[in-house]
Amino acid sequence: MRQWRFEVFNKAGTTDVHGNGVLEDIKELGINSVEAVQSAKVFLIEAGFDKDFAQRVANELLADPVCEEYYIGRSKAPAGLAKATLIEVHLKSGVTDPVAQSVTTAILDMGVEVDNVRTARKYVLLGQIKQNQIEAISKKILANDCIEQVIVGDAAEPPSPHLKPYELNIVHWPIRDLDDDSLVALSKGKDLFLNLVEMKTIQKYYQDLGREPIDLELETLAQTWSEHCVHKTLKSSVDMTVNGENVHFDNLLKETVFGATKELDKSWCISVFDDNAGVIEFDEESAVCFKVETHNHPSALDPYGGAATGIGGVIRDPMGTGMGARPIANTDIFCFGRVDMKNDELPKGVLHPRRIMKGVVSGVRDYGNRMGIPTVNGALYFDDRYLANPLVYCGNIGIMDKDKCFKHPQTGNLIIVVGGRTGRDGIHGATFSSGEMTHEHDTIFSHAVQIGNPITEKKMLDVILQAREQGLYEAITDCGAGGLSSAVGEMGAELGAEVDMEDIPLKYAGLNYTEIWISEAQERMVISVKPENLEAITKIFDSENVESTVIGKFTGDKKLKLRYSGQLVGELDMDFLHHGVPKYSRKAVWITPKLSEPNIHTKDNYNEDLLKILSAPNVASKEWVIRQYDHEVQGGSVIKPLAGIENDGPGDAAVIRPKYNSNKGIAISCGLNPCYGDIDPYWMALAGIDEAIRNIICVGGRFDRIAILDNFCWGDCTKPETLGPLVRAAQACYDGAIAYSAPFISGKDSLNNEFKCEDGSRISIPSTLLISAISIVDDVTKCVTMDAKKAGNFIFIVGLTKNELGGSHYYKVNDQLGANVPTVDLQKGPKISERISQAIEKELIASCHDCSEGGLAVALAEMAFAGGLGIEADLKALPRSPDCNNTAAQLFSESNSRYVIEVEPGRFGDFAKLMLNLPFGQIGKVTEDANLIIKDQNGKTVIDADINELKKTWQKTFNW
Amino acid sequence: MDQVKAVVLRAAGINCDMETENALRLAGAQAQRLHINRLVENKNLLDGFHILVIPGGFSYGDDVAAGKILANQIKHHLYESIRKFIDDGKLVLGICNGFQVLVKAGLLPGNGSGNSQKDVTITNNDSGKFEDRWVYLQPQTGRCVFINKDQRIYLPIAHGEGKVVTDSVESLRQLQDGGFVAFKYVDKDGNEGPFPVNPNGSVCSIAGLTDTTGRVMGLMPHPERFVYHTQHPHWTRLPNAGQGDPDVSGTIFNNAVNYMKQNF
After folding, report:
1. Residues of chain A contacting B234 with CB distance shorter than 8 Å
2. Max intra-chain CA distance, chain B
3. Is residue A228 flagged as an active site residue?
4. For residue A640, which residues of chain B lie inside 8 Å, CB to CB?
5. Domain A2-152: which topology?
6. How confident is the model at residue A534 (pLDDT cuts 50, 70, 90)?
7. What is the CATH number of the domain that holds B165?
8. What is the domain count for chain B?
9. So what's the pLDDT on residue A436?
10. Of residues A370, A637, A640, nearest to B61 (C-beta)
11. A500 CB-near residues (< 8 Å, 6+ apart)
């Protein structure tokens, strides 16, 4: 067997897009000695074919005859080694290589079976480059240490793909006689992330059993009991002190977020907080489900892979909800550090925010687009405290028939794993994500990074939906955090299960039984199948080349039994596994911070502030990100993320129409305001709920069908002063859900988003609550967008503008925080939203825009430039609270529950009648000339700007 | 003929099959999605259809290059069947990834053009990234049965590898002079221009190609994504907001089905 090496370069005269991108990144790194970068694809193929066939492979398959050329063997450096540096990036042994799999199949189509294929990337850097620069370029741009190996020069050989097979060796971790210190040391030493109370609970279990645990058993308990999987903190009892007064919760989640849902008891909620996603009614026949997850820690280490598997993982949640839903939309919300930060400001072990952002966006793009699911809604938020802990929220919505919303695994059912194979990737993901990050995490936890292959997932989805339609399985769930351990453990929780682990198909040899059991390798689902359906279901999977394997069965003895080569390697009582985790009581404290309002002088003109806010990263156009996502695949697009005459205005929410034969749609939005949390997380949470709901209402979503989701990302909640803000936010979730009659249907938390720097100092993220919202649109042809439509139309604002600049962007661009955080009037807020929703239903509204970040001035500017029209507004007619006298507050206050609305003159009467008794005012009109003019209460012009200038400023921040 | 039957090809990573099937149905065809394995197993299966559409997606992950692996599979297993399908007077449409597949399998510009996959290809966008945006398309040839020569249309693109290139000026001239260019990217007034008018840097703004018969067409934009008025990016601004607008939506599919009804 010979190894053939193929190198494929761009032909001279064609554009080397990848090489140019790398050169750009090198310049951004501040290295100017590199003159040019050439990139090449490298294929290493072990096969018995001859040189003629090798040339055919190169000509017909590997190289494009028009724009590429190839070398068989190693190409020489074009300018000689004195002036050129060769760098090759290979995948580490065992890392999934999808291209290699495709090439193997393609050569088989050409009639030859090959032994092994590996791919790599080669870079030729021209210029006099210093050794330390080569290292920086390799580490920061070309390769990710977690999954890739860099070879400089042309001498060294790439890592061998051949691994030794595993020989069974059952390992016990004795704990029965350990003292407290040793228990803690064991947990720490094995990365179990179990605390002393948990370790003692487990110790007692084994003392009662009269034996020592096998390593696999402790690993399984650690996965199942991880914060990531059981949400210990949110379910714990909490004693909280609020400014000296005591409040007690028996179970925080049940009494706040979940409590509201229970109290609201909506008939259209089909399944909430129970399955992999929350399920609500769509129409007579169908239901939709929604889940939002975070993938923060993996994205910090490997932004591309972490984000890709984040979206890949959350797509499997609806696929694993009930009997399996068909995914119809993705959402993504990211929080990063400042992207213009200098390299020397970065703590050790932290990637640059710009690299994280580019990697995360590409990861979501490549996975979401390849799955053929439109990414329709999202947000970006920047704050330096996300530097070491970027937040990557990914959401997915699925649709299924109403009679397929529940699963029923039964004793005697076979356990089948479908889709991808199990590898060493993603080991300890669940426990890793539950702990804090340190500067050493990039080396220690590299194995926690998962590698995604969207095409494997797409193939699996295609066949699972066919099997579902034929009723060939009884239950389905995804392999997410905790891998098979969680999937089989949860599905068999009430039954008991036994699994033969050597039957589980592996990506490569050498995995021990524990690695197999807890691997978080992607693209796998577990289904429960009656033995009589095995043949039929296997036939479906085989017909589209999807691997499926029987790995065990559900037994009925309420035990989890794991075998390898017939030998027992683990046995746990399901009851202990799922209900043995000790209940926690935690302490929380909240002391209202002593903040004050800054003294900002009244100005004659606010153009400059408006421009500064428009170009602030949190407000600026996200078109660079949005266009990289396919937001129209599946053909259901109604309201796109970009709106207006040039298709570039900031839409409030997305609307999709999931069924071709119906005009019913769903509206999807989000709300996120970490800034306000620095003043009071209670109002931050309510602002998030109000904003998500406003966005839904703006496009025409039904007010009485709004369901919301919570995603808490917090710092270390064992600290009372960190848990306090979380409790405040949870209380607001209850109040907001009840006031808006909008139940929470699903949620997830990611705690411990802290980073321990080399010098021992800590960076904690700001308290961050993401609210996602979904509602039904009865008739999508009545939907509304935010762009100004026609000169002569009236502009209204509905909702009260208050003196609430605290945490606003106006203060932010003036380096202030303030104290007057925007509040929510829980009586009036819902009334306003309901009334606007009715106005859209009656088709009285030409355009409608959420008044949020940057306040009224920004909302008007966005409506104007999205519509390519001017707006003249007068603050005299602004409905405001008595203390809102300052022009800056009137322009930029971010008071909640406000909508800016455009109405045709002919609809004025009906619209005004409908708004009766609400705070609303006609503040201006749409004009033909392309200017935004705003006059203060005395009629003096305080903003006068060309809309094209405003738009250009808003667009330039991320014009990458 | 009365009932036009259309088949939409499925394969690993193809993901625009459902909306393409729906677009064909709206145009009056009886449409069905079929996995490539079924066609490879039974080469006669294609005989029962009149229109073959290779839809968009990322067939086999676009590994090696966009459409390359599926093109290779077609070349080795289905080339003759598809060739016969075309020779029988039937229609083949490749959208986005399907266009890339047709070009890389040598079916476009196709036999007799003087061009083969050795002189025309589709490669990375000049921008280096995937982009979803709407573009105007100006038809260039009267030969292609899918298009109305004088009707400019507006459709979304969504791709990272859509730049049409030729190996030489000579090949490009053959494409243009021979009427192989189906569509060019233009602005709303019909003029060619730089990015974003030409969203990927295609030579001579080429957005789609046809063959000598005019019965095979491939294009990067997605006609199946504009078959309802509410899919238009600023439908809420249009005077007949929410109402159907048959002038612009669904043209390509309507033409295909009508052609088969009248000519087969």
Report:
1. 643-645, 647, 785, 787
2. 51
3. yes
4. 233
5. Mth169; Chain: A , (3.30.1280)
6. very high
7. 3.40.50.880
8. 1
9. 64
10. A370
11. A551, A552, A563, A564, A566
